[in-house]
Design brief:
- The chain has 299 residues and is an alpha/beta fold.
- The chain has a single domain, classed as Rossmann fold (3-Layer(aba) Sandwich).
- The protein is 41% helix and 18% strand.
- The chain is built from 14 helices and eight strands.
- It has an eight-stranded mixed beta sheet with strand order 1-2-4-3-5-6-7-8, with helices on both faces.
- α1 links the parallel β3 and β4.
- α2 crosses α3, α7 packs across α8 and α7 packs across α10.
- The relative contact order is 0.15.
Length: 299
Amino acid sequence: MKLGPDFQDFDIKVSSDPEVTIHGTQSGSGPPLLLLHGFPQTHLIWHKIAPPLASTYTIIALDLRGYGKSSKPSNPSSPNNHNLYSKRSLASDCASVMDSLHHPNFSVCGHDRGGRVAHQLAIDFPQRVTKLMTLDIIPTLRHYELTDQQFATAYWHWFFLIQPRPFPEEMILANPVTYSRRAFRELNEDEGLFKVEAMREYEAQFRDEAGVHAMCEDYRAGASVDLEHQREDRKHGRKVGCEMFAMWGTQGLIPKYDAVREWQEVCEKEVRGEGVDCGHYIPEEQPEELLKKMLEFFV
């Protein structure tokens, strides 16, 4: 499945690690706009909005390291070292890809885990990221600092996937269909929401041993090294320096927080944001509303 007939796929080796190749697709002309998907999906989450966006922007949509057709590196000799999947490492992948595509400056929109990568990307490469949009998240560190029973119940997978290997990997691989359906249903009860071809690719990841391990490592990094990096950024006053817009689904968990205030704490400029009437998967649930907001913000 392609995002659209005019999209051209690519595979680019990143400069920081020649063993890692990032898969992506691109189309359009105009200012570059990088799109980053979330868990447990791939760049296909953008299939409803990428084609119309490509009439205004140069759209680059990636499979994050560990997802889809991108590399899924492993470090079996150091099971407690999750740096391979730190959001800083994934942000570096993105910067390297944009270098290879000759985009020194670009805007970025990230959903879920992709939003966390986009957040770190804007901090680590402040001269390159011109605008930042996140979808249905608040900063990772604040999620953990504000953890309560409601959060732990709704986001149960955060606490399951971070368990030491190989426990969660073995449990998922033992019954990947059940786990996949549970994961998507927990986040959105509308089973007909996802295009069949896209869902087929999303679910395939739960049958792939390397992919399952990579997803667990993504979350293990989120509960360890990513928190260390965000504490360091907070301590040293490193904040997002570009304009930022936060969007969230009003039927999900994010409305329990003051999302704009939480993002304002890690941003230098004024943060704007609003909710949209849907659950977690904004690009597939409310593509028209998201497209409208993106065209307004990324001008």
